[in-house]
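agent> fetching stored inputs for the ribose-5-phosphate docking request
agent> found them:
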Amino acid sequence: MSGLTLLAGTANPGLAGAVASELGHPLAEREAARFPDGEMHVEIRTSVRGHDIYLIQPASPPAEEYLLQLLLLADACRRAGAARLTAVMPYVAYARQDRRGTGREPVGARLIADLLATGGFHRVVAVDLHSPALEGVFTLPLEHLTAVPLLAEAIAVPGPDAVVVSPDLGATKLAERYARQLDLPVALVHKRRVSGAEVTVRGVTGDVRDRIPVVVDDMITTGGTIEAAVAALLEAGSADEMIVAATHGLFVGEAVRRLAALPLREVLVTDSVAAQTGELRARRVTLAPLLAEAIRRLHDDRSLADLLVHA
Ligand code: R5P
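agent> prediction call returned; pasting tokens
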């Protein structure tokens, strides 16, 4: 692919390599090291002058490190004469900080979007952001891809007695998209977040009695949301084995232990984040074909319409 450079930070080498294989185009050589004082140093080892650059770097934990590395790589590309710079960030950190709760908090999502614009990017490619409305915080053009078709296709639907479950109000639209694809009804768990790692549930809306829940979410962080949803579903009389599907599996803190203790038939996540799942046998569905196709079409100035989230 002439004039195209694929470059990756260190956040998810497995995914970057898989995208490169899908495209049949190598990743550009680069150095990523640290000075003795801990500051990051990056250097691109090939010419990028006049090139259309796709910089693959999910802003997964530690997000501050991977974000800064992404910005350093972008700056190196820009100063070396790159023509066009696209941030391929399958997971965007701080996306849940999309409004002020108390009036004395930052709008973190807007800050990240502004940093990417200041960093010289022309475009951002993200996958299943916390909310489609987040497009509004980006001044840069955003290509908001969705992994729902890939995940829905990978789910072994246990039959017509299954029900897609949104574990909170925020995931309702996402759940409806799964439900359309799987041809299943939707139920909703009413969640209230108590703290970063703790949630409580007030009840379930929808018919879940004796049905097998397919609980879907944009992300699993501490596993608290899924744990609370499973308890509420069992309380509401659902079948005692469930399926969980989420685009981003961060699995921080006690998440693996928490989820491994639940009656889950299967946990599906994508490889947007390179997190360890230890004893939890989570199935990973790769985003590589989706990201490769998006890059191919962007490079050729072709439509992405069928790959995008339509709110
Ligand atoms: C929140 O609204 C998100 O959609 C997820 O439900 C949440 O971030 C998952 O986090 P945790 O696994 O820590 O409950």
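agent> quick read of the result: The domain at 148-285 is CATH 3.40.50.2020 (Rossmann fold).
agent> awaiting further instructions
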